[in-house]
Amino acid sequence: MSSILVTGASGMIGKAVVESLLNKKHKVFGVDNKTNDLVGTNPNYEFLQEDITNKNTVSQFLINNAIDVVVHLANTVDNDIDAYITDAEMKRSKLCDKYLYDVAVKAGCTSVIIISTTQVYGIQKGREPIRETFPDKGVSNYTNMKLDSEKALMKATKKSRTIPVIARVAPIYHAEFTQNLHTRVFDSKENVAYIYKEGEYGFSFCCLYNLIDFINGIVNVPEGRYEGIYNVCDTRTITAAEIIDYEKKKYRIGAVIQKNPSVVLTVNKGQMRTDYRYFDPTFTFYNWNIDNTKARRISTFRWNLSNTK
């Protein structure tokens, strides 16, 4: 059993991670500026309701509880911060990351796991699966925020025994949260879903439970078996046709129009920079196939759109 600190513990991802770790009999310490309904339900769960930017209080909470692993989920879009990333949010994240990583190292934590994004790879034109060795091409505020977080972690742990683990996570979904799927097949300007040809083209996403299994795998493997960057996503891409069929069954998509892929559209670069979920149909036929081979050494990645819950 490990002692694990989870930041952003009341967010969508955070709460699910905490619940899974508790089911594995770990001692879990959660931090968030809002409470959640897991508080008070399990003797192995201790919760600090505090903003992550409160350096002194959060640092003392980490040091006092002999934390083995830090799972840093705060400042993550799908863990409930707004999809529009401002300069203020980027600054907040940078200040938080620096002190948290430094304290974790000084406290002798075995590892620090952080959530980054596959958006760091930007728009890829080739057909080769996108691996961790691909260069960074991201242009959005969220990409820059997460790259800064990655660099800060690697710098803080460089001369320490604390193992850095960076999960570059594809857009998250589960049965009741499909907003990231939705943006790939919905034109907000025309307020209608769309498809090209038969919708056979696809995108990489990450079922929430694949991320949770990966985090559990990192926590449970022997020290020294893992380190560095991992692409965390479903093993298979999800096609546009599958997204539309799934959303129709859930009554979340109505009429679907067929578009001509030869039509040239104007990319809203300003919105692309600030809005995490912005997706211009112009980018549809680029390479969105993220390779998770490295991460599958740690977890099975058994979840997909057909068995998510």
Question: In words, what does this structure look like?
Answer:
There is one protein chain. This protein is α/β, with parallel strands linked by helices and 309 residues long. It folds into 2 domains: 3-172 and 206-234 and 289-297, NAD(P)-binding Rossmann-like Domain (Rossmann fold); 179-201 and 238-283, no CATH class. The chain is 30% helix and 19% strand. It contains 8 helices and 14 strands. Helix 2 (55-64) runs parallel beside helix 3 and helix 3 packs parallel to helix 4 (141-157). The protein starts with a strand and ends in a 35-residue tail after the last helix. The mean pLDDT is 94.
Short description:
By secondary structure, the chain is an alpha/beta fold. Helices cover 30% and strands 19% of the residues. Strands 3-2-1-4-5-6-12 form a seven-stranded parallel β-sheet, with helices on both faces. A three-stranded mixed β-sheet has the order 8-9-14, covered by helices on one side.
